[in-house]
Amino acid sequence: MSQTALDPRTASAFPIAAKAAIADSQLQKNVRHATEVIQRKRAAVVGEIPDWQQLREAGRAIREHTMAHLDFYLQEFERNCTRAGGVVHWARDASEARQIIVDLAKASGSDEVIKIKSMTTEEIQLNPALEAAGIHAFETDLAELIIQLGQDRPSHIVVPALHKNRQQIREIFRREMHLTELGERPEDLADAARTFLRDRFLRVKTGVSGANFLIAETGGVCVVESEGNGRMCLTLPETLITVAGIDKILPRFQDLEVMLQLLPRSATGERMNPYNSIWTGVHANDGPRAFHIVLLDNARTSILADAEARETLHCIRCAACQNACPVYRQTGGHAYGSVYAGPIGAILTPQLQQMEHAQSLPYASSLCGACYEVCPVKINIPEVLIHLRSQVVSHNTAGIAGLFDGEAIAMKAMAAVFRSERRFRAAQRLARMAERPLVGKDGWIGWLPGPLGGWTEMRDLQAMPKQSFREWWEKRGADGW
Q1: Residue 470 CA: distances (Å) to CA of 255, 365, 418
Q2: Is 115:121 a contact under the CB 8 Å cutoff?
Q3: Between 6 and 278, whose confidence is greater?
């Protein structure tokens, strides 16, 4: 059973999807509870470190240096990984990555694969591609298993099933695992998942993983997780296939000293991840006999070429920005129409789509700056959002299309009004006359017609004053001091 894929090319615009999500009170309750728990835990463990801000700055410097020399470190990684017995594949886009992985899975002689939680495999929509090729993928991360069995979609980078509560998970397990009796304690649900997965761990000979970090200096791959399922997937299969974005590179093994302090505290409020797996190539009588890694571009080099948006690639996928974002906490992750939700999704998804799709996402933010304050590598998401908004406007108003764009026409009309004092005064008089039927007894406008209704749908608008400051000043001068 495969989960429903999120495709930004066909997803509803954020305002439409968000409106539906806001109407779901249970979803809001689930998301709010989960993010508050994580934020409290994060605050506690971050508060224990006196040099937290210095750690953040170190993380930022490492990521900035890596992106500035990405070509060098990717080549170094390929040399060292190959030397250790790994096979490196390069994929320009999602389609190419899917085909490489499907071909490798078929060549392994298996019609099943076990998977570690991976946002990159979600990004390229790998599971539907495997299923179409007759290969069944078993998600082994508890949250991903819930999503898969419930034919649902991830809504959070670290906790994909954050939008589900315990009772909902219990019903999914009872139905899909054919359990006539199942308690609702966390222990009961974990035991059911463990029993369900144990046979798959022991039987399936091909594993698919993502990567938290790639280490150029050694050609090694690092995966961090909290359940132990990753360790099983990395050691038991005969063939291991890893797919990772080219932005996951770290220059040196020593850089993990910084990242493995920043990531768990920011992601789950833990001092360290219970399982930190690092492997380099293949070794006789130890782990998989064949290791392949697919390095995915999928528009990342285009992001790299944009100096103002490049820091998007600094992200280490901790989801701290999601937990802190007031917009995400109201809508949940599905409203973003992408596997990458929240503030990081609002800047990453449109760029991965090369600004052709998901153009409403840069506006899915109040620009409050909470995301920047909690980002462990100090990505200035608000500034990137503003940069992308300007790109959206430029894209939509370029050429003939701009002649028929309602917002562009309105902005040009307002610019013409503001350039002339005479036109500005005339516009004020017209506005006062036009608003009379809409002003309530309290002096506020609660409803506006047509496209203007987007403003009053969520807030009231104060009526214009009967006299502008300029008019008051002129009258005061005429009446004398």
Answers
A1: 60, 35, 14
A2: yes
A3: 278
Is 274 a member of any domain? yes
pLDDT digits over 30-56, tens only?
Answer: 999 999 999 999 999 999 999 999 999
Closest CA to 331 of 365, 281, 373: 365
List Cβ neighbours of 230 (8 Å cut-off, separation of 6 or more): 116, 117, 140, 141, 209, 223, 275, 277
Q: Residue 1: its pLDDT value, please?
A: 43
Number of domains in the chain: 2
Q: Is residue 279 part of a domain?
A: yes
Any domain includes 226: yes
Q: Which domain holds residue 184?
A: 47-301
Q: Do 294 and 438 have their domain in common?
A: no
Beta strands in 418-469 (DSSP E): 444-445, 461-462
Q: Could you tell me if residue 2 is inside a domain?
A: no
In this structure, the answer to whether residues 297 and 428 fall within a common structural domain is no
Closest C-alpha among 219, 197, 195, 213 to residue 115: 197
Run of H or E residues at 429: helix 421-435
Q: How confident is the model over 153-180, as pLDDT tens digits?
A: 999 999 898 899 899 999 999 999 999 8
> Which residues does 151 contact at the CB level (< 8 Å), separation at least 6?
1, 2, 3, 4
Query: Residue 261's pLDDT is what?
Result: 97
Mean per-residue pLDDT of the chain: 91
pLDDT the model gives residue 4: 52
